[in-house]
Amino acid sequence: xxxxxxxxxxxxxxxxxxxxxxxxxxxxxxxxxxxxxxxxxxxxxxxxxxxxxxxxxxxxxxxxxxxxxxxxxxxxxxxxxxxxxxxxxxxxxxxxxxxxxxxxxxxxxxxxxxxxxxxxxxxxxxxxxxxxxxxxxxxxxxxxxxxxxxxxxxxxxxxxxxxxxxxxxxxxxxxxxxxxxxxxxxxxxxxxxxxxxxxxxxxxxxxxxxxxxxxxxxxxxxxxxxxxxxxxxxxxxxxxxxxxxxxxxxxxxxxxxx
Length: 258
Known about the structure:
The structure is a single chain. The chain is an alpha+beta fold. The chain folds into two domains: 1-22 and 233-258, no CATH class; 25-232, Jelly Rolls. It has four helices and 15 strands. The protein has helices at 3-21, 59-62, 86-89, 236-257; strands at 28-31, 41-43, 56-57, 71-74, 81-82, 99-100, 117-119, 129-131, 140-148, 150-158, 164-169, 175-180, 185-193, 200-207, 216-223. It has a six-stranded antiparallel beta sheet. Strands 1-13-10-15-2 form a five-stranded antiparallel beta sheet, with no helix packed on it. A two-stranded antiparallel sheet has the order 5-6. The protein is globular and about 40 Å long. The chain starts with a helix and ends with a helix. The model is unreliable at 1-26, 234-244 and 249-258 (pLDDT under 50).
């Protein structure tokens, strides 16, 4: 029996199952707005007056329960900063939205970062939206007072594919995972943890490539395991079992052939 063949088959099966499951990065699974049910929190930015700087939401402000999180905004998290070499870190992106560095724990917003603010956007039919500084070309960080299982929002208006990414961080500042836009226009960028635990303390949106017209966010959704339906996405354990099963099948066929 050739163990190299088995190992290669197992790795291939794992990678194949991972792609089929919709896993976009280690630690997260990409989801759509339809995955968020009626129990999930929602912020539309129409709750406060236009021009509100770094809006701060309590559950009462967005119609949530007292057990739901406070939600706050700013330009980036403590430990992050503008890139000194945007041409290297974010090729083609506006330097004002190329942000680097790892957040420090516990995760917190950097009060000295450029502000976020609500603004009208004629490219978004559900405006007002939230923009970074300068308008449509600055980073946007979102902090939850209680860890969440999943977070998502309408991002855009995108004029380029894979130009902008939403990145999730844990309470200690460690990276959970990220997804970038797949289409132009308005796209819902959503993610949940792949181990089905509520461990997302905050998310961050910035440029990772060229985005000619800039970006903003709207219609934020968030919640716990009961608020987001992901039954159609295989869990990591299921993916591993599928891969092992495929590897076992190959071993069996190889043995019989010998």
